[in-house]
Write a structure and sequence with these properties.
Layout lengths: L1 H9 L15 H7 L4 H4 L3 H36 L13 H24 L5
Helix pairs in contact: 1-4, 4-5
């Protein structure tokens, strides 16, 4: 039981796959991806700039989670024998939620990038 607690405490489930929009019109795809009218008017430069900012934020959130991993593992192992040690773990739920939000925004931006036919720079 304690191992299950340890595993779920450290793990972040994989984000949902973006919806399949291949057979959809542009308007249907924008609605499915919850893309606003303002987003639809973004320039390639704006899209790529936001993607860079999101990538930086993503790396920061991942680093936060990684920084607690050793502490969480040690507390989890001790928690097998001494349950209060488990209370020393960091769930990083805020960072995990932020990563999910970033991934959703990336899905939107990748779609915008594709319909705008933006390059990589």
């Amino acid at each position: 039981m304690f191992m299950a607690i340890l595993i779920t405490g450290c793990a972040r489930s994989a984000p949902d796959l973006p919806p399949d929009i291949q057979e959809k019109t542009a308007a249907e795809a924008a609605e499915i991806l919850k893309i606003s009218a303002d987003d639809l008017s973004m320039s390639c430069k704006s899209i790529l700039s936001e993607m860079d900012q999101l990538n930086t934020s993503y790396n920061i959130q991942e680093a936060t989670i990684r920084s607690h991993r050793g502490q969480n593992q040690a507390a989890g192992y001790l928690g097998l024998f001494f349950f209060p040690a488990y209370l020393a773990t960091e769930s990083d739920s805020d960072s995990k939620e932020r990563l999910d939000s970033i991934q959703h925004r990336f899905d939107q931006l990748y779609y915008l990038k594709s319909i705008r036919q933006c390059g990589t720079s």
